[in-house]
Structure formats: structure tokens, C-alpha cells
Amino acid sequence: MRKSFLLLLVMMLMSFVAKAQLIKDRTNGLITLGFDVYTDINTGSKYENFDLRAINQGFGTYLTYNLPMGESKHTVSLGVGYSCHNYYMKNAWLAEPYAHTITFVEAETKKSKVSFNYMDIPLELNFRIADKFKISFGAKVSFMMIVNSKAVGYMYGDGHKWEIKYRDVNAAQSIVYSAFARVGYRCVNLFVGYQFNNSFKEGRGPEILPFSIGIGIRAY
For residues 209 and 181, what is the distance between their CA atoms, to the nearest angstrom? Predict the structure, then answer.
């Protein structure tokens, strides 16, 4: 099963790169399509009754319009994208997501997470070195689309295994700001990012300031 999943994943990524390269070739390098996978490390204050899991996997995709810097191969890129940040909690769950101030309740959980989904507006500077290498620096504004929460486990202490989902969290921040950087060779790049403001509104939830690290693919 795992081998089949990995094979499918590789085939999907190869198809994505091929389509991204086709788009860039047909637009003479003016349009770039990219995809990132990463894990988030919280740099905010430790919350009083829960810890985040070590690996908090997320992903994002984006489409940018590239403007050349003079006669060089360097570009300034402006685009639109989508990103998802998942925060997995250890033995705690979000019991009242619609409350003005949210709290996480301790419980025996098999899986518990809050998922933030954003529409991104990225601005990026791309510097091409020796044709195959690229270094990029950028910033983005992200607008909240939806926040989902899910918990699976014995949250009510009644011996029954529950699966509970909510589709909104009232205390989530509507706009967040981030900076990011990439170092790439051909279509593969290493990605890091940092969010400057809290994922929750001030005083209405825990301090979540994610530092993201992962890999990305895009046309070269």
C-alpha cells in the first residue's frame, strides 16, 4: 500500500512539473506554477494545556506573473495562491470553536487538529545563478478562507470513540503576513517561511507563529 501511494505521489508530482513547465514555456517564462509541502514549527508562547505535534504538515500552491529585471534573467513576481497550515495537538481538542475566546480541553485523542486555509497574494524576487540555480526572497499577505477543526478519540470520557468536526473558528485571525525564501536547483527548491502575526486574534486563543520548512517544485 505504501509503495503504491509513493508511486502515485511521484507520478502526480512529475505530471505537475510537466504541466508547470508547459505553462511557463507557452507564456515565454511570464507565468510560473508552483507547489510546496512543509511542516510548521510554532515559535509562539507555549500554551498552558496542550502541545503541538513535532510534525505539522501543510501544503500550498501558487501562480505568479514574472516581470524581468531589465535585460537580466532575474524577475519580480506577483501572484495568487492557496496555502493550508495544519496544527496537530497532543491529547487536547477544540471543544467550543464558536466561543469568543477559545480553549483547548485535555482529552484522550487519537487525532486532533485545527486547519487554517488561506488565499495568498505573494510578491517575490527571483535571482537566477548559472541558469540552473535560483534564489528567491518574498513576502505575502494571506486572507483567511476557512478554518476547520477535527478530533477523533475519547473526548467525553464515556468509553465511546467520537469523531467531531467543526467548520469555523470565530477567534481565527482574518489576515496574516509572512516572509519566505527559496533556494532551488532546476525544478526542486528548499522552502522556508515565517508568519509575523498570530493565527488567532489577540487575547482570544493561543499564540501560533509558524516557522515553515519544506520542499517545493516548479518550472525552471
Answer: 17
Quickly count: other Cβ atoms within 10 Å of residue 65's Cβ. 14
Please state, in angstroms and rounded to a whole number, the distance separating the CA atoms of residues 101 and 32: 41
- Structural domain including 166 reads 2-218
Q: Contact, 20 vs 192, CB < 8 A?
A: no
Report how far residue 114's alpha carbon sits from residue 93's, in angstroms, rounded to the nearest whole number: 9
In whole angstroms, what is the distance from residue 108 CA to residue 164 CA? 13
What confidence tens digit (pLDDT) does each residue in 81-132 have?
999 999 998 888 888 888 888 888 888 888 999 999 999 999 999 999 887 8
> In angstroms, rounded to a whole number, what is the distance separating the alpha carbons of residues 100 and 174?
14
B/e letters for 31-60, b = 16+ CB within 10 Å, e = fewer, are: bbbbbbebbbebebeebeebebbeebebeb
Kindly report which listed range (116-130, 157-171, 174-188) carries the lowest average pLDDT score. Answer: 157-171
Strands 133-154, 162-166: pairing kind: antiparallel
Q: What is the pLDDT of residue 16?
A: 65
Domain count, the chain: 1
Question: What's the CATH number where 189 sits?
Answer: 2.40.160
Distance CA 166, CA 163 (A): 10
Q: Which three cell numbers stand for residue 9?
A: 505521489
- Taking residues 13-28, what's their average pLDDT? 69
**Nearest Cα residue to 212 out of 9, 41, 54:** 41
Q: What does the block give as the cell for 110?
A: 487519537
